[in-house]
Structures are given as structure tokens and as C-alpha cells.
Amino acid sequence: MRRAARLAVPLGIGFAFLYLPILLMVLFSFNDSRLVTTFTGFSTRWYVALWENEALMQAAGLSLRIAAVSATMATVLGVIAGFALARMGRFRGRTAFAGAMAAPLVMPEVITGLSLLLMFVAMEQAFGFPAGRGADTVAIAHATFGAAYVAVVVQARLADFDTSLEEAAMDLGARPWKVFFLITLPLTAPAIAAGWLLAFTLSLDDLVIASFVSGPGASTLPMVIFSAVRLGLTPDLYALATLLVGLVAVGLVIASWIAWPRRRG
Amino acid sequence: MKGRLGRALVLALPWSWMALFFVVPFVIVLTIAFAEPSEGLPPYTPLWRWTEEGGPIIQLNLANFRLFLEDPFYLEAGLRSLRVAAVSATLCLLVGYPMALAIARAPERWRTLLLMLVILPFWTSFLLRITAWIGILQDQGWLNGALLALGVIQEPLQLLYTDIALYLGVTYCYLPFMVLPLYATLSKLDPALLEAAEDLGARPSRAFLQVTLPLSMPGVVAGFLLVFIPAVGEFVIPELLGGPDAQLVGRVLWMEFFQNRDWPLASALAVVLLLLLVAPIAIFQARAAREAA
After folding, report:
1. Which chain B residue is nearest to residue A111, measuring alpha carbons?
2. Residue B274 domain-assigned?
3. Range of the domain at B207
4. Domain count within chain B
5. Any B CB within 8 A of A244 CB
6. Looking at residues B263-284, what average pLDDT do you find?
7. What pTM did the predictor assign?
8. I need a labelling partner for B64 at 20 to 30 A (CA). Which of A12, A67, B189, B230 fits?
9. Rounded CA gap, B74 and B57, in Å?
């Protein structure tokens, strides 16, 4: 009994701290009142208001597109990098490569955003590409830090990977590329899928880097939310938060179901 | 020989991508930090130009860095950033350590679920979670409402736009980064060590202080750095929850860039921010590399 209490108290405090703010938002997204703090009655009007908010819907569409494209690019880059780091042993420049792959994980966003913007400006001056800034430059920026996350996930999966299947295939005469596509890739697929989802979510959530590298006419969802929050709290923001929490909860359940399949028996 | 060429080809794509979009941009930031602001686009002067005789002239403008030394505003922003990050990381440790320990000692079938509950908020919109805290802390907010209703206070407390709000916001947003590395070390601890301590007569508190805590130090350091490093450059939280005087480096950089359009000064701030973080990032990377090996 005492042991159970010792476990429950810190978890109770911690999870209350993490979830009370979210629960309050969910509750007040169904509030009838315009006031964001007193509950007057149940209503779904803020969801309707959300649906009718064209700027927000457009930004959401743009953000979803950018997230899908950048997560896919990040997955290609991150999978290669993760394989290189986990499987290629001590190749020349490994430390520098590992450093370059891991640095975006801890780099403050203002630095990443500013440096990428200056890079895009310099490239435009030198080569005329990318012409101007918008969704494309945001996608490139997101792919860069997304790749770092995918690489970590894939590398971790490969680190505790049973190589005997690959060895068996090679012994049976399969060529390396065939081993890779028929054995290694399918077995790492859950980690790759989890990495893609992580890159997708991070892209969807990014305000700072997108604000630096985006251009006029390409406002992502976080940029629109940010300017709305600066003007003041409105309940439709809570409705949006509720939808996102629901979406993420469903996504995470699916992702964990893929990544950690139930052991049989 | 063929293997080596194959490897080089495989590595070429991520290598060149990271070089182009991560390493080269830093070099550009470093050069523009020494440029002078100008009207026009891009709003800075080139560092070198060709004289009429045909030789290059390189002009380094040190005014930005001199400004940081002379104007106390920037020095204070730097110190304040370090303080906010350190306080918040400590708060994360105080909340996160008991959580991580409890998860590590929970029955095995619960652990995945508990860990997932720690990570879940991290996957939902960062901005909207900050927004929730505005609703909690503002003058007519939920917290003041609850305290007034209970009769604890007679007048609403000023909570939003204070340092308390800032610490709470950073702690709230970065807590998962503290719990995960702590859990990773704590779950690997050999329970036999604790049993041995108990058999030798140590009380639980003493066993914790002399066995568990010292052995979990790698997790403590990793978690502290994972919170501290991004928190030093944080922009959104001080902007939305902090007061007008909560000028942290990230916020000042943002202001110089977006409001004052002083790209060289913003770049110089990025260089200074990076210098502040070189030591913690190096420690973090060295530890990560050692663990991977």
C-alpha cells in the first residue's frame, strides 16, 4: 500500500500538471459564452466558427501539405543517415557527420530559422533559386530538422536489431541490395513510420523556423494561431486545440500499435 | 574498393543536404554578423568589394559586438536567458525526477502507457498549450477564479506577464525532455543494488541518496541539458507569457530581425547565443557519442 502511494503521488502531481491545462481547454471549447473562463452552457458554436474561419482553414491546409512533403523528405534523408551511423562502422568523417545530424535536435529555433533564411537569401542572390520564399523554403527547413529526428529513431531501432536474418539471406546468396529491400527495410519499417510521424508533427507545430523562412502569402497554421493569440484569447482557439489533441491521441495510438506490436502468447 | 565507393554514394545525399542547409548557413550567419545594415534587399552591406585597382577589400564591422559589451540591455538579456533556463530546468528536474522514478518502478505492463502519457502533450500544439496557460494565469483566469471562489485571495493576483508565468510555461513545455532521459537511466538500474543497500541496513532515503541518485546522474545531466539548451533561446514562451521586461536573447533576436530589420545585429545575437551554448552542446554531444559507442 505504501509502495503504491509512493508511485501514485508523483505521477498524480506530474500528470495533473501536464493534463489539467489541456482538459480545461477541451472543457471550455464547448462553452456557450464568449468569455473564456466562465462556463455558461454547452455549445458547439466555436467548432462551427472554426470551420467558417477561412484564413485558419487555408493555413491548416498549407501546413498539412508542408508537413507531408517535409516529413517524406526528412524520412529519406534520415533513414540513409540512420543506416550510415548504425551500420557503416567508423567511416571517415563519422564524428562530423554524427554532429551535423544531431545538432538540429538541440539548436535553438531562432538560430536555425535565421541561418536558413540567410542561406536562402544568399542562394537566391547567387543562383536565382529558390526564387522568393514561401511553402517550398519552409518545407526544406522542416525537412532539415525532421531528418535529424528520423535519423535518431532509425539508428536506435537498428542498434538493437538482430542481424542473423540478414546474414542468413547473404549466406543463401542474396545480393546486398536485395537483403536491404527484402529484410532490413521491412523490419525497420515501424521505426521509419514512427520517424515520419514525428517529422510530420514537428513540422505541423513549428512557428519560429517557419516565420523566418516563409514569405508573404504563405502563412502556416502556427503563424495564424500566433497572431490570433497575440490579439487575445478566443474560445475557437480552444476548439482548435481540442481537435488537435484528439487527432494526436488517435495518431499516437496507431503509431504505438505499429511501432510496438503486442507480443503474442 | 567498391564498398568504399558505395558508402560514399550512400552518404552523399544526407551529407550534402546537412552541409548545405545546416553547416553553410552558420557560416553565413557568422559573416553577416560582421556586416553593416543598409536599406534595400538584402538589408546588409557585402563584407568585401572590389577596389578600382582590382584588389578585394574586406571590411569587418565590429559595431554589433561592441554594442553588446556597452549596452547593458543585451548583457541583461543574456544573463536573464541563462537564469530562466537554469531555473526552469531545475523545476523540470524537481517534477520530472519523481515521475521518472515512479514510472521506472511501476509494474512493467504499465510503463509503456505511462511513458506515452508523458510524451502525448509534447505531440500536441506547443502554441495552444501555451495558450492554455494564458487562460489559467490571466487576471480573470481560471486560477484567480478558483482562488477567489475559495476565499484564499480577495483580489486577483497578477500572474500572467510575470517571471512565475515564464518559469511555469518553460517547465510545462519541456517536462517530457527531462522525464525521458531520466527514465532511460533509472529503468536500467540494477535492483539488486538497492536490495543490497537495504540488507546492509540503509533506510530508503539513504539508499536513494547513496545508490539511486548517484547512479542516475547521467540521466540528470542529459535531461537538464535537453531542457536548458533550447530554453536559453526560447522565443514563444517569453513573448506570450513573460512581461515586457522578459527580454531573453531569443526574443531580442526576433525583435531586431522582424521589427527593426537589422539583420546583421540579429546575426550577431545568434553568434552570441551559440557561444553561450557551445559548452552545454559540446557536453551533450560528447555524452551522446559515448553512449552510442
Report:
1. B270
2. yes
3. 64-292
4. 1
5. yes
6. 88
7. 0.86
8. B230
9. 31
